[in-house]
Design brief:
A hairpin with a 2-residue loop joins strand 11 and strand 12. The chain is of the alpha+beta class and 265 residues long. The chain is built from four helices and 13 strands.
């Protein structure tokens, strides 16, 4: 097992070194501060031609939340924690079980796009690794329309065809949340379980799936959604294109049932 973890680390470092400059980033993004988002994790995916890397959110020391479409093929997964710099991760935890949301469909990309990953052991918490602050019960039904949202990830910038993922530094982009009606003009089958963000300042790209979408409450980030999908490679990941995320307030009971996480009133 130790050998496998070293192999995964080598791959992560190799991917990052191949990133040629700081402009290869989540579209329009900036570098995240060290320990700014310690609940964000990277997920290395082995044996899947469609996905080699996704992001996720640590919801308890033992469970990571990500998108179902990243892990639906049940391949070998390793979660990376401990730094915003992919080359400085210091915890490498194998995934022992993948739980797809019961309502997810592998033919309908935007339905219940959630999965829980069970880690081989609890993550060691500290300044660089922490569990996320999730929405409260009182926020169920809140559209969050007009709120400023923060989206982060190690995904592609979309500016080059030969980029590799993950990029070295965790990237941050901030955009307003737009109404589902406006979002539906660009994307099909938008429902109440989705949150959409404007792409005017940039947005998530390939490799950012599963990353947190946050609002700020009393100076503290609250993860209200995780990134699900965006426009594809033809014109995707560029400014002006909205991004679609899975709304967590629609799935709080599912999270509680399968992780035991405590949800604020």
């Amino acid at each position: 097992m130790r050998f496998l973890l070293l192999v995964f680390l080598t791959l992560a470092v190799a991917f990052a070194i191949d990133t040629p400059n700081k402009d290869t980033r989540i579209t329009g993004g900036d570098d995240a501060g060290e320990n700014e988002f310690p609940f964000t994790v990277g997920i290395l995916i082995s044996g899947d031609e469609e996905h080699t890397f996704c992001a996720g959110v640590l919801v308890t020391p033992r469970f990571v939340l990500t998108t179902a479409n990243c892990v639906i093929r049940q391949t070998m997964l390793t979660v990376l924690l401990g730094s915003s710099d992919i080359t400085r991760m210091n915890q490498f935890l194998p995934v022992t079980h993948v739980r797809l949301h019961w309502n997810h469909s592998n033919t309908i990309i935007n339905r219940a796009d959630l999965a829980l990953l069970t880690l081989a052991r609890d993550a060691t918490l500290g300044p660089s690794v922490a569990v996320a602050r999730l929405p409260s019960r009182s926020q169920v039904g809140n559209t969050f329309n007009g709120f400023g949202a923060t989206v982060i990830g190690w995904g592609l910038s979309g500016n080059r065809v030969d980029e590799t993922v993950p990029v070295q530094h965790l990237q941050v982009v901030r955009n307003p949340i737009i109404s589902n009606f406006v979002c539906g003009l660009s994307h099909s089958f938008i429902t109440d379980e989705h949150v959409c963000t404007s792409g005017d300042n940039g947005g998530p790209c390939d490799g950012d799936e599963g990353g947190p979408v946050m609002i700020t409450e009393n100076g503290e980030p609250t993860v209200i959604a995780i990134h699900s999908f965006h426009f594809g490679r033809l014109r995707g990941c560029e400014r002006g294109r909205s991004a679609v995320h899975t709304r967590l307030t629609e799935h709080l009971d599912w999270l509680v049932e399968h992780t035991g996480v405590e949800i604020r009133p």
